[in-house]
Design a protein that fits this description.
Length: 162
């Protein structure tokens, strides 16, 4: 952004037009719209995607593999070429392999640490065990003839209960 051009544009904006309105709210709305237009012209909005924080077992090697995979996928979406898809597939498999390795190494290190310091067990495993709340579901599901059914009457009939 060129600050001097921005200031010149603000100075030359038709602020006096707001005096046409009798209501103070209308004047305020006109000022805010005019200011918004000037600011948008000199500093347009940029969309940015913010991702969640890394998992505790994230490694730099795995993160680089994810970046390479995403870049290959963007290239494929632009070109639709088969070789770009194959590259993405190869990089996806590599990222998966590195993720599995990172998880395995993380838990091996945690296990060894907990073996030496048992009081850290709870702190290490609780984030991965989920909620303390007990989830009750009254809905019963049963696989009958390779299809899952939730109809209680069909379940009762298949069990021989009438």
């Amino acid at each position: 952004m060129d600050e001097q051009v921005f200031r010149d544009h603000l100075a030359s904006a038709p602020w006096h037009v707001a005096e046409v309105f009798d209501d103070v709210d209308d004047q305020s709305e006109f000022f805010s719209l005019l200011l918004k237009d000037v600011v948008d012209e000199h500093m347009p909005w940029k969309r940015m995607r913010v991702r969640d924080g890394d998992v505790p077992y994230m490694t730099t090697e795995w993160k680089e593999a994810i970046r390479r995979r995403r870049k290959a996928l963007r290239r494929f979406h632009k070109s639709k070429a088969l070789e770009d898809w194959e590259l993405h597939r190869k990089l996806r498999n590599e990222a998966t392999r590195l993720r599995r390795k990172a998880i395995k190494d993380y838990w091996n290190a945690k296990s060894e640490d907990i073996r030496n310091k048992p009081h850290k067990f709870y702190r290490a495993f609780m984030p991965f065990l989920g909620s303390k709340k007990v989830k009750e579901s009254l809905e019963m599901k049963l696989r009958i003839n390779n299809s899952i059914t939730t109809n209680q009457l069909h379940i009762a009939e298949s069990m021989g209960v009438s």
